[in-house]
């Protein structure tokens, strides 16, 4: 066979070139995402929703790239080559990649400002790299050789590149390269990609088939199905990540695992030989939904690691079933770019729902069960047996399609009343068994099965979650997370939880309501520092603290002191100042100055040498805001402190050992540091709730450190030297990795 110009082609020989091009492009796409996140961290702060909004931006730019690829795919090879390489050249003018300097952070909503920042920083290069995957597949489909008849296997190569980059960044790139080096490395990869695209463009190829010979375009119904099959897994990826990290267990880099599994499902679904795995996933998905997804509302802190594992298995099986069905419906290669365009649109819709709509509308991660129900309605399944299939024939099937969901919904309320409210499992069991049976019988009837599955989730905690949402002030959600206020009338305490992380406790007994508890109990490192403060800084000391929480630290204030709190989330301020919930601020420091915004940026705006004591209390969660733990951040703290001031840093964490990090920074700055690991005696009395805490004290001189230790009640014996890690360099904005300081579990 010959190409349009009469040149003999070799499609099989072209395969390695196209695979390498698509692989590299996808690798660069997924490498730039965490890289830019690290660059932006000092500016963005430690918002948990940043990842979801960033993912939405990437999906939107992917859609823009796919629209562009679809638009130019109708042109001749020569015109496509010239046009695409021109776009590459224009995007290259923005190299090396870096963070744009834009205004509006104080005036724009956080979500919108982050999208603008990402667009200004990497929009051009991301756009052109995003376009190359569908465009290269379109070009490969034109190579005049039977081997190029089905180019869809290249989609698996694309996702393989994404997966490798996802795993390479935290383990092979971030620990060894500074951000500037990473930026130049990525920029070099961009140039290599442009050269590979140029070589691909020079492969002899046929022109597009005339309209009369081309396959008819897909119907709008088929395009809607493509969109839905892509949207649900995309949204489920983000909702699973949010659900895991806020309501089950907050483990560092946990977001990597759901995304990796999501990419693997694409690789399997579109790879040669992947059909057998997809077949098994379609068979298993309904049962996996029932067995693992039915407990979605109950997976709040109980058996955290087990529930995290089941959610990951659920995501993998469901996404593989849906992506496999999507791959099975792929059109002829002549419609390839149209197909990818609608897949990308589905990804954006799923991202919009999970990252933007849900946090604005829901006070809990309701998007997660909603997306699971949508998945149940999309999974192509058959009845488990032929006999069950016969039940759905004719009018009997119509009656069952209405009766089973209604009966399952009624039964779910009974399960809620008996199992959740009354804790009577034996009386709830028959109703629970009926819901499960109804769901099993309806497998293969998508809408009926989805309704029965929803009834199962409602019975197992769903009704209770909805009831909590109707209680004023019980649970609220912001861009920064989900906050739940719980009153324990047995222990006579009220606590504020941020997902699985405790953010503060207050006694319900009036005479104990000004006593700091949890991490701030008497004898803790921070309590010792405040006890010593009047002795070392006088009665008019200036105090600043980062992380308002419930305002517990406020009650260490004594008359004459000036207090300032720094808080990034307006919702936390509202909760802490609401006297129906917590009274630390209103009773102890009603005139306290509260500065809104990321603490590091806010402290940079404070007058130099202002504070006698500065407490950094932003590390009570398992996911730390790394930008507050770099040398540059500590220089900001040092500037805000008086020459003989005291810096207190809270480093209680279940997964990361921050002592070596602070030890390295203190040594680099020439400061002295001590740590107090305090496990208070808990008398078990009502109204008291103490927690183990680890606080680090840093001062410019050893003399001031001695004053601090002797001024508190514990004395020098209660403080220890920080644990060091040989070879660990101080974290900087340009170089930091949590891998070396992860605790052995």
Question: Can you give keywords for this protein?
Answer:
single chain, 745 residues, alpha/beta, Growth Hormone, Chain: A, 4 domains, 7-stranded mixed β-sheet, 4-stranded antiparallel β-sheet, 23 helices, 11 strands, flat, disordered N terminus, methyltransferase activity, polyamine biosynthesis
Report on the structure:
This protein has 4 domains: 206 residues, Growth Hormone, Chain: A; 148 residues; 85 residues, no CATH class; 249 residues, Rossmann fold. It is 56% helix and 9% strand. It contains 23 helices and 11 strands. Strand 8, helix 21 and strand 9 form a beta-alpha-beta unit. The longest helix is centred in the first third of the chain and has 34 residues. It is flat and about 85 Å long. 51% of the residues are buried.
CATH class type of the largest domain: Alpha Beta
Specify the number of helices.
23
Helix content: 55-70%
Judged by helices, strands and strand pairing, the structural class is alpha/beta
Strand arrangement within the widest β-sheet reads 7-6-5-8-9-11-10
Which topology of the largest domain does CATH recognise?
Rossmann fold
How far apart, in Å, are the first and last alpha carbons? 61 Å
Mean pLDDT: 86
> Total domains, how many?
4
- What's the main sheet like? 7 strands, mixed
Assess the beta-strand content as a share of residues.
Answer: 5-15%
Work out the radius of gyration.
Answer: 29 Å
Organism: Sphingosinicella soli
Keywords: Membrane, Methyltransferase, Polyamine biosynthesis, Transferase, Transmembrane, Transmembrane helix
InterPro entries: SAM-dependent_MTases_sf
GO molecular function: methyltransferase activity
